[in-house]
């Protein structure tokens, strides 16, 4: 019976190209596609889904690397990842990396030892060189290379929506507040999207944009409002930042949302039935988890599967930190 | 070299009794202890910690069964469990049981298959018959039998503290609000402790105490305050209940803490740096996690180890849902 290798040999292409054709993946030259298809026909190659998945020492276990599960967004994400795995009879190993690259590498090593079949990682550590295209690895919110699959919410659009929602609520002097990681990640696009809309509006904009971890947020906010007392709208990089900013403003006698309106990002809920009440850009957490596991399974059961990138839609959810539309 | 079995034979006791003597466990008759110690001396038995742990197919993995990790208390607990395991070079399998006994049994089965070495479980399902004294299992907040180890915070004292803290803050008409599980667990002692102090004080007390899940909390609270408008202090079974009660009272024009003071239980924080601000009874989550893992490891490395019970201290943390002491 013909194998994928036979097809590749006959078509004079790599096995990866055959896989790409079989998976209807983008980036295959029409000429290549034609040759591969001809070879498939000639050899009578039949794709054997079972054989593709045949690896006797599969652990039926996936590792999830998070900065920490002790965080409402990450715990919701971990919840959905586990649900998604359970439906596939897979188990979940949980790793709180605390951004410790050494710890993350232990889990990556477990893949090569067949102790886990793959990894979903929300990671802001220097592990670039260890994450290769061979590794069944799906990154969340961080781009490594084009060979590494990743899933993210549409951070740029999210930033744009936040700006628009503040503007239609009468904000005249917007500000952005965020820390940034030294490792590039998708969340910086929230700022880009926000700034693009504000720039179009012609309004003045200010920001607190400093390296993480932010030690002196209170002084930074104090300084910002002393310099720019007319600020009346804030977009925070995430909901936790909103929770940190609120008491600081309150202590300064600034009322939310009467004096300053605030929009966060994440849309996390304390439990499945307990939202926080913040006006926010909601990430589709359940969909992100399901998509990440689907992509990971594709890779585990088809080693030649090309990387996949999914940018998922976000939406605005009204809460108690903004005023009605004017 | 003499083994524990040799000691048991010579002393004419069971191996369990020898283990209990070696581990200085309670419940050993003085006569038994004397015989065992004599046998140990005569045989020159030396306890071999390494041999006790010798089991070639150890997985170095522990399963944590939680109702759901998507909950601030459970995610904090999961965080500390993983930290505690990591220090011992163990990995954590996470199971959100959603109180699904079938799912929990899968993990219990994994112990017998040597896929995991033991289980820490916060479980309110009907798994009694599957949790035996042979299983390396530590229960949190639920008592199965005296053979099953469990760790809990001091719920009774916690309830007493909540009552006392309300009383010293001028509460004259206290109430208790809680749902209850059909599976007996330690958290009901919060109510017992609270009631014991209120009974001593001679004050009238009311309560909402209904089976979980509570579908119609709003109507229940509404009915309670219509019948008993003088209620001015509430002890909620946990912090989430406080978060649910607050908006209901607000909608009724009842101010917290001016009109009604509220104390919760758990003391959870959204992240390691973000407390909630509720006045509450704080559980020692990190200590509970570390204690549970220590007890579990004792059992894994010493099969004959008797069950251990740890009731850990709680404390009151002042927040914004109570008034100053009068």
UniProtKB/TrEMBL annotation, chains A, B:
Molecular function, one GO term: transcription cis-regulatory region binding
Please name the SUPFAM superfamilies in this protein's record: lambda repressor-like DNA-binding domains, Periplasmic binding protein-like I
Which one Pfam family would you cite for this protein?
Peripla_BP_1
The answer to keyword Transmembrane helix applying to this record is no
Keywords recorded for this protein, A-Z: DNA-binding, Repressor, Transcription, Transcription regulation
Q: Give all residue intervals belonging to the HTH lacI-type domain.
A: 2-56
Asked whether the UniProt record includes Transcription regulation among its keywords, one would answer yes
Could you tell me the superkingdom of the organism this chain comes from? Bacteria
Q: What is this protein called?
A: Msm (Multiple sugar metabolism) operon regulatory protein
The source organism is Lapidilactobacillus concavus DSM 17758
């Amino acid at each position: 019976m013909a194998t994928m290798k036979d097809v590749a040999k006959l078509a004079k292409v790599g096995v990866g190209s055959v896989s790409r054709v079989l998976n209807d993946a983008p980036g295959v030259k029409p000429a290549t596609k034609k040759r591969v298809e001809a070879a498939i026909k000639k050899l009578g190659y039949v794709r054997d889904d079972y054989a593709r998945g045949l690896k006797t020492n599969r652990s039926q276990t996936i590792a999830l690397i998070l900065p920490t599960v002790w965080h409402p967004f990450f715990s919701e994400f971990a919840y959905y990842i586990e649900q998604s795995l359970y439906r596939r009879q897979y188990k979940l190993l949980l790793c709180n990396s605390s951004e410790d690259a050494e710890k993350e590498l232990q889990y990556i090593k477990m893949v090569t030892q067949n102790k886990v079949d793959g990894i979903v990682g929300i990671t802001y550590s220097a592990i670039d060189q260890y994450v290769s295209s061979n590794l069944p690895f799906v990154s969340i919110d961080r781009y490594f290379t084009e060979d590494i699959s990743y899933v993210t919410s549409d951070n740029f659009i999210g930033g744009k929506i936040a700006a628009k929602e503040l503007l239609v609520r009468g904000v005249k002097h917007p500000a952005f507040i965020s820390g940034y990681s030294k490792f590039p990640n998708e969340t910086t696009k929230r700022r880009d999207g926000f700034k693009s809309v504000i720039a179009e509006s012609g309004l003045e904009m200010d920001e607190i944009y400093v390296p993480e971890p932010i030690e002196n947020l209170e002084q930074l906010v104090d300084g910002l409002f002393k310099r720019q007392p007319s600020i009346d709208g804030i977009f925070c990089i995430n909901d936790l930042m909103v929770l940190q900013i609120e008491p600081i403003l309150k202590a300064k006698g600034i009322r939310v949302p009467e004096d300053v309106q605030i929009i966060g990002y994440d849309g996390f809920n304390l439990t499945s039935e307990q939202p926080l009440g913040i006006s926010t850009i909601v990430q589709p957490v359940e969909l992100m988890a399901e998509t990440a596991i689907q992509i990971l399974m594709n890779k585990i059961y088809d080693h030649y599967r090309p990387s996949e990138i999914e940018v998922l839609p976000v939406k605005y959810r009204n809460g108690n930190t903004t005023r009605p539309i004017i």
